[in-house]
Design goal:
Elements: H1 7-26, H2 30-41, H3 45-56, H4 67-94, H5 100-125, H6 138-148, H7 161-175
Length: 176
């Protein structure tokens, strides 16, 4: 993904990647698995989905940008804004009589913050597809993040999102 020349191109690029990560999220088994990772291991769902987008598309971050950089880049927004809003929204969903309008406002704000995280990751990494002679490191970033979360779930051969999340789900169920 080349560096966009103007703000509208950046917004379009973010919109395109948002559509892709939303598609990943809706793939069979992915939503439940990433929410399990989020709730029980502290995973950053947007980072998981972003790394999968890199991996599935054979993309790599610009040279010098690694997993540590991505973890740091989204950390404050995630801890200060996302986690408290998510906790409040979930508490309201469990409470009977809470107005749906309030829940929807909070969900909208939460998704806006997730999208802002995605933009941070895109701006930081400026992902691109390497020449055919150089393999992408996207799958390695996914596996490295899973190891940080305490999961040893290597991908087998070509990175396939659904197969990978099926494997992750089975690992999580074994440990439950």
């Amino acid at each position: 993904m080349a560096e966009p020349k103007n703000p509208n191109e950046k917004t379009q690029a973010t919109d395109q990647v948002w559509a892709e990560v939303t598609r990943f999220y809706k793939a069979p088994g992915v939503e439940a698995t990433v929410l399990d990772l989020q709730d029980h291991r502290g995973a950053n769902v947007m980072l998981v989905l972003f790394l999968c987008w890199l991996a599935e598309g054979g993309r790599v971050p610009r040279p010098g940008v690694g997993l540590d950089d991505l973890l740091k880049a989204g950390g404050v927004r995630r801890m200060v804004l996302l986690k408290p809003i998510r906790a409040l929204r979930r508490a309201l969903f469990r409470k009977k009589g809470t107005k749906n309008a309030l829940k929807n406002i909070l969900l909208g704000f939460e998704l806006h913050q997730e999208r802002a995280l995605l933009k941070i990751y895109l701006d930081l990494t400026r992902p691109h597809r390497p020449p055919q002679s150089m393999p992408g490191n996207g799958p390695n970033l996914v596996v490295a993040y899973m190891k940080i979360l305490g999961l040893n779930a290597p991908y087998k051969g070509q990175f396939d999102l659904c197969e990978y999340f099926t494997e992750l789900d089975s690992i999580l169920k074994k440990r439950a």
